[in-house]
Amino acid sequence: MPYTNNTSPCGVFLYLALAHLSEVVAMNSDKTEHADNSDFFGYDNISLEDVERIADDEESARWPEAMRQLYAMFRHELETHQVDSKIAIALLNRICREFGGVQLYLPRGRQLEAEIQNLSIWHEFKGDNVEELSRKYDKSMQHVYRVIAKMRKRETKNRQPELF
Predict the structure, then answer these.
(1) Distance (Å, rounded) from C-alpha 95 to C-alpha 90?
(2) Distance from C-alpha of 58 to C-alpha of 66, rounded to nearest angstrom
């Protein structure tokens, strides 16, 4: 199944992770091309362009489906955010090195979605619009008040140092 644009919380998280990884890779790209490649592949006589041609070739059908999906997803996200899509193969290589052979569970992102919604409620809260926020987010007024209390506590903790 090819990658499609994903605006779910997991997609948002993945976008943030990709943005961070692409910044790291971009910082390293100031080095010479072959020195940079040895970090990615362990070989100093190949270029990213060579590997990208292989990835785009029909032979990549031999790659495991998950690798092809990740590669397509990385390329799509990088192109969408106007970042050099050649980084996609480096990101795929890094994920394979870090997590290859490991069974990995990726949650659907419901907790992340709830936190993003809480943050949105907090940003829109004006002090007298709890009922409006309750209708907008289809949550009870009690829920909105709990979110405000939680976010206020978090904000206070971030701004004030602990005394004891």
Answers:
(1) 9
(2) 16
